Amino acid sequence: WDHGCNALLLPHVAAAVLQRALELLALPPDGTPRLLLDIGCGSGLSGEALTDAGHAWLGLDISAAMLDVAVEREVEGDVLLGDMGQGVPLRQGCFDGAISISAVQWLCNADRSSHQPRKRLKAFFESLYRCLARGARAVLQVYPENSTQAEMMVAAAMKVGFSGGLVVDYPHSTRAKKFFLVLMVGPSSYVPQAKGTDGADEPMSEDEDVEMEDGGQVRVEGRQRKKHGKPKGSGKSGAQLKTKGWVLKKKAQMRGKGYTAIPVDTKYTARKRKKGF
Questions:
Q1: For the whole model, what pTM was predicted?
Q2: Contact 155/141 with Cβ under 8 angstroms?
Q3: How many alpha carbons lie under 13 Å from residue 151 in its C-beta half-sphere?
């Protein structure tokens, strides 16, 4: 059971997600190494990114087999076998931050008859809050199955004392959308900003590949979807038209669900952009 980034993400996507998690962690850029906790570390791929960034780390995972792989790969961090749903068994206030890639959402599932998701989420977030230093942050990238799971995770974190909330990058994309639960210990003026909230600058999706052609042109290959007639609200070309009203409605829905970092509505919202040369 590897909940690490190598289980669910392609290598180039995993690297981008890890860099985004570090960006949201917003560690002070003073060159001082920090001690970080990697929850669901798997074979240590995410930990290697922390090492490359100059930090020390400890990884926690429930899979002994994946931790054996991490040891065989001679990762520089320490690894610990444990079930995050039973709590993080680490000393109080010893970590400067925590990350998790594609792991915490599993606590929302009852994989065994003895598993009670709300109790497991409570045990996890209580222990995570306890082991983080005052002012530290945790960035947990998750894949909730639905809004109910997202709300469960946010509510469980808030109940134990965390501040923060859910940051959703590229919320209008079905393939590029990423959920990050950004949590702070104690009061903070830090406000994480989501990417792609206006539908622009969507990154390459997980099932696309990039290849250079002759003359320096970039060719992107990805999953081809069959089109059955024109999508609702589409123009002559079949592309969906995202009007200002549509964008404002979506933003209002996300605010109603408790998502943070939704840009304010202005006269520039959903404006048409000129085509590049």
A1: 0.70
A2: no
A3: 8
What is the pLDDT tens value at each position of the chain, 277 positions in all?
Answer: 344 444 445 566 778 899 999 999 999 989 899 999 999 999 998 999 999 999 999 999 999 999 999 999 999 999 999 999 999 999 999 999 999 999 999 999 877 777 899 999 999 999 999 999 999 999 999 999 999 999 999 999 999 999 999 999 999 988 889 999 999 998 878 888 899 887 665 665 444 443 334 443 333 344 444 445 555 555 544 455 678 888 888 877 777 666 666 787 787 777 776 665 4
Closest CA relative to residue 46, chosen from 276, 259, 55, 158 = 55
Neighbours of 54 (CB within 10 A): 11
Q: Which residues of 81-94 are buried (b: 16+ CB within 10 A; e: fewer)?
A: ebbbbebbebeeee
- CA 131, CA 275: separation in Å to the nearest integer? 50
CA dihedral 82, 86, 152, 115 (to 10 degrees): 100
Q: Which two tokens stand for residue 21?
A: 């998690």
Which segments within the chain are labelled E, that is strand?
35-39, 56-61, 78-81, 95-101, 132-142, 163-169, 178-184, 209-212, 218-221
| Block residue for tokens 């929302």 | 108
Using left for φ > 0, alpha for ψ between -120 and 50, and beta otherwise, residue 47 falls in alpha
Q: Is the dihedral of CA 74, 77, 83, 89 positive or negative?
A: positive
